[in-house]
């Protein structure tokens, strides 16, 4: 019997949802950052074995939105709960209980889908504290299962998969066996560039930045892919930060991004980046599709 199904990763920002999905599928399908609200779209990561296929949906972190983009992100995350076979509710064992977790539990009250409580970052918290977190939250909701793990190290990954498979029905192969994500190349390339910006910048830059790929084409005369990308921010001051003194920040972003993109595409890449200002773009829904944002 071959089984297949969909698994949502749910939690407040920065609890490790993207890291866990990448660990489970054994490949980098979602970008990683220590900045909250890194994930904006619903990212699908695919794990296929001889006996099952699991499609993991990495949802935007549930938070109190401050603009239209945030509202759409939270709406998408909560809507996903109705469309999957299992929900993995991640909490941060190292940070301890928080109001954001309690808000999400409130949203789960009317959900019929099985929910597995996952106390992540057990490597940082220690086994004792992680178990305390589980005991605390199990008093709020009748979880189908609960366990501690480390998305970073992969500890207890197999135990989690065993629990998930209890709720996965017999089904078809939804995606080819060698596919690890259904995201198009342009989206992944844009995300890799954004990941480097998140890593290298601070203050208001991470949440105000978007990336648009305007060209991705192989040169006809040599093994080289030309990529042109616009980096959008909301203020002139932010543009200056992303460019850096004498272009130093933009150069470093480009160098780091190019290394990852070349690994993704299996080819040398010529990457050109431009920084432009789009005032208040997070509240202008009409601009989002050009940035690869699909929140409908």
Number of helices: 10
Do you know the CATH architecture of the largest domain? Answer: 3-Layer(aba) Sandwich
CATH topology of the largest domain: Rossmann fold
Amount of beta strand: 15-25%
The CATH H-level superfamily of the largest domain is: P-loop containing nucleotide triphosphate hydrolases
The biggest beta sheet is recorded as: 6 strands, mixed
Describe what this molecule looks like in 3D.
The chain is α/β, with parallel strands linked by helices. The chain folds into 2 domains: 3-165, Rossmann fold (3-Layer(aba) Sandwich), CATH 3.40.50; 185-291, GMP Synthetase, Chain A, domain 3. Helices cover 34% and strands 23% of the residues. It has 10 helices and 9 strands. A 6-stranded mixed sheet has the order 2-3-1-4-5-6, sandwiched between helices. A 3-stranded mixed sheet has the order 7-8-9. A hairpin with a 5-residue loop joins strand 7 (210-218) and strand 8 (224-233). Helix 7 packs antiparallel against helix 10. The protein starts with a strand and ends in a 19-residue tail after the last strand. 40% of the residues are buried. Residues 32-40 have low confidence and may be disordered.
Brief write-up:
By secondary structure, this protein is α/β, with parallel strands linked by helices. The chain has 10 helices and 9 strands. It has helices at 17-25, 68-80, 99-108, 122-125, 127-137, 157-165, 185-200, 205-208, 236-243, 248-265, and strands at residues 3-10, 43-48, 52-58, 86-92, 115-120, 145-148, 210-218, 224-233, 268-277.
């Amino acid at each position: 019997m071959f089984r297949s199904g969909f698994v949502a990763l749910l939690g407040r920002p920065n609890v490790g949802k993207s890291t866990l999905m990448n660990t489970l599928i054994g490949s980098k399908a979602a970008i990683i950052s220590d900045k909250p609200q890194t994930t904006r779209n619903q990212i699908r990561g695919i794990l296929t074995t001889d006996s099952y296929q699991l499609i993991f949906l990495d949802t935007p972190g549930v938070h109190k939105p401050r603009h239209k983009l945030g509202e759409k992100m939270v709406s998408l995350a909560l809507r996903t709960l109705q469309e999957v076979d299992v929900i993995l509710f991640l909490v941060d064992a190292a940070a301890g209980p928080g109001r954001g977790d309690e808000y999400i539990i409130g949203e789960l009250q009317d959900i019929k889908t099985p929910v597995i409580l996952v106390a992540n970052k057990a490597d940082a918290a220690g086994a004792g504290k992680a178990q305390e977190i589980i005991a605390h939250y199990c008093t709020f909701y009748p979880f189908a299962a609960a366990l501690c793990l480390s998305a970073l190290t992969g500890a207890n990954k197999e135990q989690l998969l065993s629990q998930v498979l209890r709720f996965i029905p017999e089904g078809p192969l939804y995606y080819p066996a060698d596919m690890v994500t259904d995201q198009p190349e342009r989206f992944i390339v844009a995300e890799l560039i954004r990941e480097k910006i998140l890593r290298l910048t601070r203050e208001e830059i991470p949440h105000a930045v978007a990336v648009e790929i305007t060209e991705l084409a192989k040169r006809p005369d040599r093994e080289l892919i030309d990529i042109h990308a616009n980096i959008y921010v909301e203020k002139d001051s932010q543009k200056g930060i992303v460019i850096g003194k004498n272009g130093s920040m933009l150069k470093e972003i480009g160098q780091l991004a190019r290394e990852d993109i070349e690994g993704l595409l299996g080819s040398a890449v010529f990457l050109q980046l431009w920084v432009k200002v789009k005032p208040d773009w997070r509240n202008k829904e009409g601009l989002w599709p050009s940035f690869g944002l699909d929140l409908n």
